[in-house]
Amino acid sequence: MPSQFSAIGFAVSTGEDLAALASRVADRADTINAEGGQYLRWAPPSGEQLWLQLTRKGDAMGMNPHFSGQSTVQAGLEARVTRPTHTPLDATFLAWANPPDGSATGGDYPFVFDCPDASSYAGLTLPALVTLQMAAFAQQVSVYADEAAYEVARTTEGLSFESRAFIPSGLISPEGRPVEPPEPHALFVGHVIAAAERRNSVTGTPYWWALVDTLGGTFDVVIDPVLLPSQPQAGNILSGWFWLSGRIRNEAGGSAVKRSWLSRLTGR
Q1: DSSP secondary-structure letter at 191?
Q2: Quick check: 187 and 169 in contact, CB under 8 A?
Q3: 60 found inside a domain
Q4: Number of other residues whose CB lies within 10 A of the CB of residue 93
Q5: Listed residue (67, 71, 88) closest to 7, CA to CA
Q6: Domain total for the chain?
Q7: Disulfide: which of 17, 81, 98, 150 matches 92 by Cβ 3.0-4.6 Å?
């Protein structure tokens, strides 16, 4: 079954699979000290990453995948989000894409993403202006030959969105109610700038990467091949539902929060 791990070439379906994978890459990983423990970062040049989590005593706490690519999203980090499943080294951020000049809140849309090294930024004062590298792990995906083909599908299949659109599905339910706590999921449609088959450097298993230009920025999309109706290439339109993982490229400061994401969305 496709998952965040299979999107970058790892077959993981049980806790035993996770433990075996962690053991397999731990000796090749870099150690990063952070508040609450340590990260072991396995990051080969091919792009796929695993972030293992250890307590100060060396006990395992968790592991998160990421993909390092070319994407760029200018964002205002508004708040940290806590979920019941979080370990002390997990964290999720609520952010705004493409905030206006001089502000760290507001922008094209709010969204939520998991950050594999979030504890490294425990001292970061929010709100803050940052540049993000965003990885979108496909859960469902469709590929259209070009914008004209997508427009035909919009008519024949009743698709609602323009060819560059982003819907923060982890924030608002289909019924229009806030999701609590918010989840790092999104629906988006965008233009494929580049695409290539990648091979996991440990397993040799192929997966697909695409750099997608959508509303608010560009995203590195990684895809388990079983989800693909056709192989993506530059010029295609790609749409789907994604789990979002992001890393901070730099910090650029912050400003006062004037209104929450919910009040901005609802006008209250």
Answers
A1: E
A2: yes
A3: yes
A4: 27
A5: 67
A6: 2
A7: 81
3-class DSSP state of 162: coil
Please tell me what DSSP assigns to residue 7: G
Q: Quick check: 263 pLDDT over 90? A: no
Same domain, 177 and 96: yes
Backbone angles phi, psi at 111, to 5 degrees: -155, 165
**What CA–CA distance (Å, rounded) separates 258 from 138?**
34
Same domain, 112 and 50: no
Residue 204 burial (CB count, 10 A): 8
Give tens-digit pLDDT for 5-28: 999 999 988 889 888 999 999 989
Dihedral sign, CA of 5, 9, 12, 13?
A: positive
Provide the 10 A C-beta neighbour count for residue 17.
13
Q: Answer whether residue 265 shows pLDDT above 60.
A: no
Contact 99, 127 (CB under 8 A): no
Domain encompassing residue 35: 6-67
* Tally of CB atoms within 10 A around 82: 11
* pLDDT of res. 173: 83
Interval 171-180 mean pLDDT = 87
CA 228, CA 237: separation in Å to the nearest integer?
A: 13
Residues 50 and 174 in one domain: no
In angstroms, the CA 15 to CA 254 distance is 40
Inside any domain, residue 251: yes
User: Are residues 23 and 78 both part of a single domain?
Assistant: no
Identify whether residues 59 and 88 lie together within a single domain. no
